TrEMBL record:
This is Sugar transport protein. Gene3D superfamilies: MFS general substrate transporter like domains. Keywords: Cell membrane, Membrane, Sugar transport, Transmembrane, Transmembrane helix, Transport. SUPFAM superfamilies: MFS general substrate transporter. It comes from the Bacteria.
């Protein structure tokens, strides 16, 4: 009898390991692609958007990144509906294939130099397909693990999904780093394709494992009793109880979690390389090491959420992020590039111009040309990552630039470059002047906040929705917030910086959404969980055309 119990326990453990492997490999793939594209945004700007200015090209590359996110809610509705009606397993097998083929395809694309304007169109099409696939991936993975897990361990089990997301980003950074070292100057020419082509190996492994796992026992029980939803999208969007939960998920959970997480995972690297002018390899090294050290914190946060609840952990970190993001990034500047901070204090740069001659630096259609001295000056400053302020001049006055007490004509860019150099503005940050212990600590602090919010997120979302519509109801608000709030975070923030000249002005974006989530979540996010009908309610009494009542258990 004892041997039988041991065998059953061992079989369950083996089955759970396969469930975790199946779900987490998809997340690994998702975040590998996410960070790969984000890390190589500068390369994409030159390879696919070289028909516009350098600053505009970089923002367009980030917009292509964001467009993939914008298509995610579409995928969430398509695959969420399939997952609630036909099953979790086969649905997120399809999402894996779509996601993997789209990532692999990026490595095979022709560039702008080869096919002109067709190149960015092809890139955007692949990003859209990628986004649609990812739209059904996260929800499927979170639900698949949660519905195989004991309810009192959902936080700890689903947090592995979040941790493996970090592994995917770590892989992306490591592979890019190794490829840069191996290919040298050839990396920007053709070597950037290799990390995308290598994803084919991960795709094959993921498909094999997903084919070998069993369907969610909760879904099978609902299907056996005929209680799966016949219209999960309608139930989610037209029944107030479910729609309210979806709105809370968007504004009281995912919006803030997304910006807090992306601040550490992607905006930080852009800030270090473009705004603070750190060498790209060196900046990647700093982020890579801290990311690896912080990975166990995701599981730790998930375990802790099973004890203290998801709400205080997530909302507390969002609040801390909103209150500390500006001083944290100012401290990062002081530690990483003290020369820039000193130059900004001793020789502040001011652009004095007739404002009617200055264009908006972010031209969405890419048609505006730097026809005026004001535009040319601002493009130069944005390209070099030099902070500046704007000052209005009289109508018709010539554009001038003050660097400290010295004034330069806007028409003389060569003289302006020399003046900026004399004022302490360097092309690259001096690595010997980096305060490493302080910089390590500040980056780690950002990753701690990311772990506290992102680690328990999957369990918090699963807790919000009843099982019969959970795939749709969880996936849609998650991807809506992650896609619109998170996907356009880098491009909007850097467009704000390009327009204002203030390297910190883009931080208002994450500060706003993290504070909004802290407030909305505090007021409306339940402190408990919606119970699974198949486990805690009588499924036989649930109507065929509606969700069962959302019974809430305290203390989750």
């Amino acid at each position: 009898m004892e041997t039988l119990k041991t065998d059953v326990h061992g079989a369950k453990q083996h089955s759970m390991r396969r469930v975790l492997a199946s779900a987490t490999l998809g997340t690994l793939f998702e975040w590998y692609d996410f960070y790969l594209y984000g890390t190589l945004a500068t390369v994409f700007s030159t390879k696919f958007f070289s028909g516009v200015s350098e600053t505009a090209a970089f923002i367009y590359a980030l917009l292509a990144f964001g467009i993939g996110f914008a298509s995610r809610p579409i995928g969430a509705l398509i695959f969420g509906r399939l997952g609630d009606m036909l099953g979790r397993k086969h649905t997120f097998l399809i999402t894996m294939i779509l996601m993997g083929v789209s990532t692999l395809g990026v490595g095979l694309l022709p560039t702008y130099a080869t096919v002109g304007g067709v190149a960015p169109i092809l890139l955007v099409c692949l990003r859209v397909l990628q986004g649609i696939g990812i739209g059904g991936e996260y929800g499927g993975a979170a639900i698949f693990v949660a519905e195989h897990s004991p309810r009192n361990r959902r936080g700890s089990m689903t947090s592995w999904i979040q941790l493996v997301g970090g592994v995917g980003m770590l892989m992306a950074l490591a592979i890019v780093f190794l490829c840069r070292q191996l290919f040298g100057a050839s990396f920007d020419d053709w070597g950037w394709r290799v990390p995308f082509l290598l994803s084919g190996i991960l795709l094959a492994i993921s498909i094999y494992i997903r084919l070998s796992v069993s369907e969610s026992p909760l879904f099978l029980k609902m299907k056996t009793q005929g209680k799966t939803s016949k219209a999960p999208i309608r139930e989610t969007l037209t029944q107030w109880r479910n729609l309210k939960a979806a709105l809370i998920a968007v504004f009281g959970l995912v919006g803030g979690v997304t910006v807090v997480t992306y601040t550490a995972l992607i905006y930080l690297l852009f800030f270090l390389t473009r705004s603070l002018r750190l060498d790209e390899t060196l900046a990647t090294h700093y982020v890579l090491v801290i990311m690896a050290c912080a990975m166990p914190l995701y599981v730790g946060a998930g375990v802790l959420s099973d004890w203290v609840g998801r709400k205080p952990l997530i909302l507390g970190a969002c609040l801390v992020s909103a209150l500390t993001i500006f001083p944290t990034f100012r401290a990062i500047t002081h530690a990483a590039n003290p020369a820039l901070e000193a130059a900004r204090t001793s020789h502040p740069v001011t652009v004095v111009a007739d404002q009617s001659t200055c264009s908006v630096q972010f031209d969405l259609l890419g048609r505006a040309k730097a026809a005026s001295d004001c535009d040319r000056v601002k493009q130069l400053l944005a390209k070099e990552g030099i902070p500046y302020t704007n000052e209005a001049a009289e109508t018709g006055a010539a554009t001038t630039v003050r660097v400290g007490d010295v004034t330069f004509l806007g028409a003389g860019l060569a003289a302006l470059r020399e003046g900026l150099s004399a004022g302490g503005y360097r092309d690259k940050a001096d690595p010997t002047r980096i305060d490493k212990p302080v910089l390590w600590s500040l980056i780690f602090f950002l990753f701690v906040l990311a772990a506290m919010t992102y680690g328990p997120l999957a369990a918090a979302l699963v807790d919000l929705f009843p099982a019969r519509i959970r795939y749709t109801a969880l996936s849609f608000p998650y991807q809506l917030a992650a896609g619109l709030v998170g996907g356009f975070f880098p491009s909007i923030s850097f467009a704000i910086v390009a327009q204002t000249g203030d390297i910190y002005s883009g931080l208002w974006y994450p500060a706003f959404f993290s504070m909004l989530t802290a407030i909305v979540g505090f007021l409306f996010l339940p402190t408990g969980r919606v119970e699974d009908e198949a486990l805690d309610s009588d499924l036989a009494s649930a109507p065929d055309n509606a969700s069962s009542p959302a019974k809430v258990t305290r203390g989750a």
